[in-house]
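Why run this: before we spend reagent on co-expression, it is cheaper to look at a predicted model of the complex and decide which construct boundaries make sense. The entries below are exactly what would go into the expression plan.
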Amino acid sequence: MASEDVKILGGWPSPYVMRPRIALNIKSVNYEFLQEQFGSKSDLLLKSNPVYKKIPVMIHGEKPICESLIIVQYIDEVWDSGHSILPSDPYDRAVAKFWATYIDDKWFPGLRAISRAEGEDAKKEAAEEVIAGLVLLEDAFIKCSKGKSFFGGEKIGYLDIALGCFLASLTVTEKMGNIKLLDENKTPNLFKWAEKFSSDAAVKDVMPETGKLMDFAKVLIAKSKAS
Amino acid sequence: MAEELKLFRTWSSPFALRVVHALKIKGLEYETIFEDLSSKSASLLQYNPVNKKVPVLVHNGKAICESLVILEYIDETWKQCPLLPRDPYEKAKARFWAKFGDEKLFSSIGNVLISQGKEQEEAIAAAVQNLKLIEEQLQEKKFFGGETIGYLDIAFGWTANLISILEEIMDLKLVDEEKFPVLSAWMHNFSDDPVIKQCWPPRDKLVVKFQAMRESHLKTVLSQ
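The model came back. Tokens follow.
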């Protein structure tokens, strides 16, 4: 049985930090959550992730593991408690990894671009791109879920975690930009899934509350405008 | 049952070459479809509608996209000559460095190609720093995978071929044998491996291609 000396270096607002926390919850593995001070990086972080100096980092015993999706895969491979996070079939695994890469490389940057867009036209264009991405993900959901509640099937899996961690940011972006992104009519399956994911036992305590995240976002925006 | 295994690639894509290397190491028979990216085939667009890129591996009608995802798929499906380490921590480290290679190293080498003067000096400094990090991962091993070629060797394989081509075009040295003894040795060992050696695209064609890329970029910069 693997030693459970597990630490997660991170911050409550970060969607990437949510990912390993959800994975550890699925596996019922206890961990120490070491929160970084916003605006500075601890010595432990700099020592554990000298290449990127970013959160999350998981420290298992003495071993640091970096990059959120790599950490999730590590967790799935080390602990077989709870349920499997990655699908067992190699093709299903490849599909899940493909979409997770798409979400990180294309979709989430598109979401961030909405709040950075200047002017109504630019905002509208950015929003349309995000919605188009959600339509692709809706289709992926239908194929992956095979009629069940999650991308992973009956239970939360890798792709649920990869996308679901951004739900709070999505809601904040909708509220602050006064736009609708996750639309019940355009992406009905994802709409239902979002509710189920957010209220799942492994997720609900680590997903930031929208109001709190929005206040945090406003502070960030104010800071970046001031500099 | 005859397995259908098709690889959509271009003659020069280093990412597609990774898949070629993996398939050859595993001893797998497959069909190659060469794509012209300026005029993509209906099949490619059907198999990779999201990114419309190569490589795409089609196995019994199912398409797998993204070269590193394909490598893992190949390793999980065909168990001979394992590519990824078995230990989860070693696996995580291999995945981390492969991602670093794609996100940081690749673009930093590319930046050297498309710049000149002071900007190029800065690009070279950044690239060298990244290469140092890679060399540190080798330690004293023959390959990143240990005694035999593995996932990370394949992921970094493009450096063993393209860096010397870029050095030739620009008449400079990025991976100096003195400064990078371990990495230089790895590049020779990897390139000269009998399975890998037969796969390299024609060198003269690559020189022409990257020369043209450099000239076109520099021209664009000048006209701005």
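The first strand of chain A starts at residue 6 and ends at 10. The radius of gyration of chain A is 18 Å. Bring this page to Monday's planning discussion.
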